[in-house]
Specification:
Largest interface: A-B, 31 and 38 residues
Oligomer: heterodimer
Helix content of chain A: 25-40%
Number of domains of chain A: 1
Pfam families (chain A): PRELI (PF04707)
Organism (chain A): Chauna torquata (Southern screamer)
Shape of chain A: globular
CATH superfamily of chain A: START domain
Structural class of chain B: mainly alpha
Protein name (chain A): PLD3B protein
GO molecular function (chain B): phosphatidic acid transfer activity
Helix content of chain B: 40-55%
Radius of gyration of chain B: 14 Å
Keywords (chain A): Coiled coil
Distance between the termini of chain B: 28 Å
């Protein structure tokens, strides 16, 4: 998909069926800097399906994990960069992710995504079995991310088609009405 | 999609609609002229900031910007 489509979808990524644990998205800040780039700071709330009995013991506010996301969109250079890191009450494991969307250099109808993640436990970088496990999860999440955007793009296209169809219908009705009046 | 503060969800929806339209139709096409959603954003922001304080969400290093500065603000 062209970069503009992907970027627009990325801004409206949630909700989507591939990320059912994201339950809230808020924009904390948004501004355009002096070079015309749009900065957005967002807060994402996620719920991991903790059994309700646990929730009733520790309170619902502590069952959510929060992710803060900083995105920068450069409409001239056509890049979108997203940096996100999770914040939670325990901060035991932190995942920092960086994604960059750019138009494909040779095929203008495609977009390239580069993604990297740094996983740390209590501030120390992991280098063990656990790291491998999470890396697998993250790369399958990367695929999920692509599927998620695909889903959002299809939904946006369907909305546009619906809008166009109903606009056509309205026009036809008013033309018919006008013709009737003229007679 | 809901807001972190339940009371803010409606304000968020209004702002999101405004923003998404402006983003796709103006910003990405390189049209200058500020973000027209300033007022909606302000109202939504006040609500969110209150919710974050109430829920004690530990956000560090984020300045809560007030109205955008200078040329980015649309005329109101």
């Amino acid at each position: 998909h062209p970069w503009e489509t992907v970027t627009t979808a990325a801004m409206q990524k949630y909700p989507n069926p591939m990320n059912p644990s994201v339950v809230g998205v808020d924009v904390l800040d948004r501004h355009i800097d002096n070079s015309g780039k749009l900065h957005s700071h967002r807060l994402l709330s996620t719920e991991w399906g903790i059994p309700s009995i646990v929730k009733s013991l520790i309170g619902t506010s502590r069952t959510k994990t929060y992710v803060q996301e900083h995105s920068v969109v450069d409409p001239v250079k056509k890049t979108m960069e997203l940096k996100s890191s999770n914040i939670s009450f325990t901060n035991l494991v932190s995942v920092d992710e960086r994604l960059v969307y750019k138009p494909h250099p040779h095929e203008p109808d495609k977009t390239i995504l580069t993604q990297e993640a740094i996983i740390s436990v209590k501030g120390v970088s992991l280098s063990s079995y656990l790291e491998g496990l999470m890396a697998n999860t993250i790369s399958s999440n990367a695929n999920k991310g692509r599927e998620a955007l695909e889903w959002v793009i299809n939904r946006l296209n369907a909305e546009i088609e619906e809008f166009t169809a109903s606009a056509r219908g309205t026009m036809r009705n008013s033309m018919a009405a006008a013709a009737f009046v003229e007679k | 999609m809901n807001s972190v503060g339940e009371a803010c969800t409606e304000l968020k929806r209004e702002y999101d609609q405004c923003f998404n339209r402006w983003f796709a139709e103006k910003f990405l096409k390189g049209e200058s002229g500020g973000d027209p959603c300033g007022q909606l954003f302000k109202r939504y922001q006040l609500c969110v900031q209150k919710a974050i304080k109430e829920k004690d969400i530990p956000i560090e290093g984020l300045e809560f910007m007030g109205p955008s500065k200078g040329k980015t603000e649309g005329s109101s």
